[in-house]
Design goal:
The structure holds two protein chains of two kinds. Helix content of chain A is about 70%, strand content about 0%. Chain A is mostly helical. Chain A has one domain. The chains are: A mainly alpha, B mainly alpha.
Chain lengths: ~110, ~180
């Protein structure tokens, strides 16, 4: 017996929005990490709270990108069905870019100490 | 037997929040993996969904608490700069590690990786918690979505594990006192 709730046809838009936003937040964190390494002025600009240094700016820009893009994408995709496979691929690629950008041997290639 | 305020915060950050997140991972993965219509009864699905949602949102809250306490409470003590001419670096972990070529990699690879990659864990697990809550039992019939969510979930664990393992080792080599 299949429960009623299992048969509900919910549009996948909100989940696609969350996945891509998660990828965008991660990729943004990776990008900020690379940019801070490549440019002393960007590193200084990301130093929002001196005791923790530029990590504060990198992390909070990444989190802001995650939350802001989630809100925007949720409004765009709410109530809609999106072809899932390409959307998931985009989300996973963005997440992968976040992983690459935060890996020291990668971001160290762009300059730094 | 005593513990300083700084040591207490490193315990809260790493052993309370961080370890709780890592320990909860297996339960969540088993819940997501086995969420298939052919494996789940009506009663089992109802019970499992509540447990899965509660577990994932708890993990998301713990992951956010871990990175916030790590970045804004513990990390400033780690990176604090010693006064000019200081020779005893035992209370300045970053500079203690960098002063010796045999320990510098703990900072240049371990800490640099940990402090950045750890932030991916709460983002990824929050997405998973939202998707599971949104779909509810209907997720059992969506194989593609479930697989993608499991990748996000495993990456959340992997990034938290990297942060946790390096945190544990760095605390041994250059503890925050």
């Amino acid at each position: 017996m299949i429960p009623h709730a299992m048969n509900e046809e919910l549009p996948n838009g909100p989940v696609v929005a969350a996945l891509i936003a998660g990828g965008l937040g991660s990729a943004t964190l990776g990008l900020m990490t690379v940019l801070a390494e490549a440019s002393p002025s960007i590193k200084d600009a990301l130093n929002w709270w001196n005791p923790a240094g530029p990590l504060t700016g990198k992390a909070l820009v990444g989190v802001t990108a995650f939350v802001a893009s989630w809100i925007v994408l949720h409004v765009i995709f709410r109530g809609r069905n999106v072809t899932f496979a390409p959307a998931a691929t985009i989300a996973l690629i963005l997440l992968g870019l976040g992983l690459l950008g935060t890996f020291p041997p990668i971001f160290a290639m762009f300059g730094g100490e | 037997m005593s513990i300083s305020m700084r040591e207490a915060w490193t315990v809260i950050h790493g052993m309370l929040f961080g370890a709780a997140f890592l320990l909860a991972f297996a339960g969540g993965l088993a819940g997501l993996y086995s969420l298939r219509p052919e494996w789940v009864t009506v009663a089992g699905l109802k019970e499992r969904m509540f447990r899965l949602k509660a577990g994932l949102w708890s993990m998301a809250a713990i992951a956010w608490a871990t990175v916030v306490t790590g970045t804004f409470i513990v990390y400033p003590w780690y990176r604090a700069k010693p006064p000019e001419g200081a020779t005893d670096l035992s209370t300045f972990p970053r500079y203690l590690l960098l002063a010796d070529p045999s320990t510098a990699t703990w900072h240049k690879l371990g800490m640099e990786w940990k402090e950045h990659v750890g932030w991916l864990a709460p983002i990824a697990v929050t997405v998973v918690a939202f998707a599971v809550t949104y779909y509810g039992p209907a997720l059992a019939k969506k194989a593609g979505e479930r697989r993608t969510l499991m990748v996000f979930y495993v990456i959340a664990f992997g990034t938290a594990a990297i942060a946790g393992v390096f945190g544990a080792f760095i605390s041994k080599v250059a503890p925050i006192r």
